[in-house]
Amino acid sequence: MIPQEKIDEIRSRADIVEVIGRFVTLTKKGVNHQACCPFHDEKTPSFSVSTSKQIFKCFGCGKGGDVVSFLMEKEKLTYIEAIRWLAKEYKIQIDEITLSPEEQEKQEAAAKRKASTITSLRIIQDFYSENLNKSSRALEYLEKERGFSSDIKNILE
């Protein structure tokens, strides 16, 4: 069992662009990076990686997530194996504690739920920010009716 603080440290130090860049050739496009999806065949890039949000999303096949879920999907690793992979790559020493199989299962399930929730919320945030930025009417409403400053568009990017 890897202590949660150590998992948090590993996740915060792992750069999604650097890790995914080991598997596919990423091209910078605006604030994000793009590539052809490593999970399905395609000719036009639909795979996007956000440096600021530390998530990926394929708009072709729908796969998305963070650096851990990418490794799990791409390398067919378990959650803990992906964490160990990242720890090794980033030279982070992990001192594991021994738990019973039941306790370990509960810990892994809780960590997966937390990671999945965070990833989902980041994807949702990205979706709403992107759509809000496309609507001048919505931005005008926020500014005039809700009292947001005209800098709201910069905040949402």
How would you portray this structure in words?
The protein is 53% helix and 11% strand. The protein has 7 helices and 5 strands, in the order ααβββββααααα. It has helices spanning 4-13, 16-20, 67-75, 79-89, 101-134, 136-144, 152-156, and strands spanning 27-29, 32-35, 47-50, 55-58, 64-65. Strands 1-2-3-4-5 form a 5-stranded antiparallel beta sheet, sandwiched between helices. Strand 3 and strand 4 (55-58) form a beta hairpin. Helix 3 packs across helix 4 (79-89). The model has no long low-confidence stretch (mean pLDDT 88).
Question: Would you kindly provide a brief summary of this structure?
Answer:
This protein is of the alpha+beta class. The protein has seven helices and five strands, in the order ααβββββααααα. It has one domain (4-156): Alpha-Beta Complex (DNA Primase, Chain A), CATH 3.90.580.
Poorly predicted runs = none
* Extended strand count: 5
CATH fold label: DNA Primase, Chain A
CATH superfamily: Zinc finger, CHC2-typedomain
Q: Can you tell me the CATH class?
A: Alpha Beta
Tally of helical segments: 7
Task: From the structure above, extract its key features.
157 residues; alpha+beta; DNA Primase, Chain A; 5-stranded antiparallel beta sheet; 53% helix
